[in-house]
Fold this protein.
Amino acid sequence: MSSPTEMLEAEHRVIALIVGAAPVLISKIDEGGPVDNSLLTGIVEFMRLYADKCHHGKEEELLFPLLAEKGVPMHGCPIGGLINEHARGRVLVKGLDEAASALSINEADDVARGRLITNLRGIADLYPGHIWREDYMLFPMTDKILGKEEQDTLYAAFQKVDEGIGSQVIERLVRFAKSI
Ligand SMILES: [Fe+2]
Ligand SMILES: [Fe+2]
């Protein structure tokens, strides 16, 4: 069995596929190219369900509270900053969703095109640093703080989150990330 931080790291690699695709999408839209609405809808769904509900959910509802019990401060570096970044990610995805919806009604809406680019760029700027801070600061710290038994219990709780979302849904979202 792998560890809970290994599970989160593996999810980061999937999220990074979507985040890595954002700059390509930005340049296409910036050049005035057509807006692929089903792709944008897919990205919004992925960010809400996989990145936020499944992944941030494990971090915010299970990992961070457990670290708090162990005496890690919830404010400041690193956890307070990471929680703020999750909140910022939600705002960006909401903005992306709204801009995509406006463009699905009128593809020539330049204001919506600008908002789409701003929010995609925000996502592309936010996540690499966020993932780095977790992979290289939070997770090594977690591995040091939690004993083997606590890690196994946390891993089982993470699996329950996946079960709650459904393995078929998760597999579909992972396939989507790998497809773009
Ligand atoms: Fe996170
Ligand atoms: Fe994460």
Q: What stands out?
A: DSSP finds six helices and no strands in the chain. The mean pLDDT is 96. The radius of gyration is 17 Å.
